[in-house]
Automatic annotation (TrEMBL):
The keyword Transmembrane belongs to this UniProt entry's keyword annotation: yes
Location(s) in or outside the cell: Cell membrane
Protein name: Uncharacterized protein
Keywords: Cell membrane, Membrane, Transmembrane, Transmembrane helix
GO cellular component terms, semicolon-separated: plasma membrane
Membrane topology: Multi-pass membrane protein
One Pfam family per UniProt: Cons_hypoth698
Amino acid sequence: MLHGILLIALFACAAFYIGEAQILKDISFSPMIIGIILGMLYANSLRNHLPETWVPGIQFCSKKVLRLGIILYGFRLTFQDIVNVGVAGIVVDVIIVVVTILGGIWIGRLLKMDRDTALLTSVGSGICGAAAVLGAESTIRTQAYKTAVAVATVVIFGTISMFLYPIAYRSGWVDLTPQEMGIYSGATLHEVAHAVGAGNAMGTEISNVSIIVKMIRVMMLVPVLLILGVWAARRNAKDGATAEKGKVNIPWFAVGFLAVIGFNSLNLLPPIFVDAINYVDTFLLTMAMAALGAETSIDKFKKAGAKPFVLAFCLDVWLIVGGYILAKYLAPLCL
């Protein structure tokens, strides 16, 4: 197992090194995204030339290391964030998350998509991109390539939106106040990095609101994962799984994630310690992404077909249009 873990750790180190390139920083391409790309390159080149004894280590990174990374992700959040943004951001976030996930599942059925891929894509679009996809994958326990497909679609359309929002705002295409634009960006951009990148391009006032609203969306990962745990148990029972598999699989890492947020809200650790933990957490999540990529070949992408990208496009249109309407007309009523 150790050889596989060291291999994935090497990929993560390479992802961090490559991520230092200025062009990648400018487009907010995080080491996690680079990690899954490196993993996929490995899966489609050297994967069949290395010992099978390395596979358990790779799978350990895609499961156990991933869950630890999700738990430590809580050090990026505090409950004070909710108070700071007010009711408007919370209401818009809740509507966006619920409609995106349920709407994505419905569209997936219309497209006759694989239900796990549709669910992962919807959760990633609705909450916090790759991190949400990874959390959902750990809860429903599906094949790695479906996770990679969902991450790919979320990253592509999230990156496009990250560039589109500042252009639309500065060009006057969207008639929103800085507060409303911050709510709009935070409630609809896919990744935390996308919200940070777009917010910084539009000014400090917008950026501060955008990041807080985005972090509240991240917190919604906990109830969503708990609901997914119940849903997965019922699905297994309905599909004729064993009684053991039919039991409710409580995602304890989600509970740990919430507990860490609560601890972080007490401000007991010096900022330098929290920054160090967040750096280690990013490394762990990068390892998990690389491990998932290492289980994903081009053939599996072909098997998934174009439908996941069609779904992601539909969800992105909803986020752009629906999010604007909510930020423009609903948010002011709650401010």
